[in-house]
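Posting this for the archive.
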Amino acid sequence: MIVEMRVYYCAPTRLPALLDRFRSTTLDFFKTYGIEQIGFWTTLVGPDNHALTYLLKWDDMAHRERCWNAFQADPDWIARRAETERDRPIVTRIENTFLAPTDFSALR
């Protein structure tokens, strides 16, 4: 198992739009493509309170590439994402990290 940590940094005032997009659109696509979330967090205290951090669980990198690439190529997802950014962009930067659990981790 590997865990993918994704941090989306939003343009000022656009975090609510990103949260709404995940809530009303993205999670349905995740379900369709077998993308398993561990959780989502917003930043209470830190360098950027316009950020959304979330974790995804994968069997291995091949599993991740297969599911994520299919999701990203879905024409309906592309159109719906574009519609949410019709007025202006939501996300200004994305950080992506892959984590492997240690042998003493509660999550393995």
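The first strand starts at residue 2 and ends at 10. Residues 37 and 53 are 11 Å apart (CA to CA).
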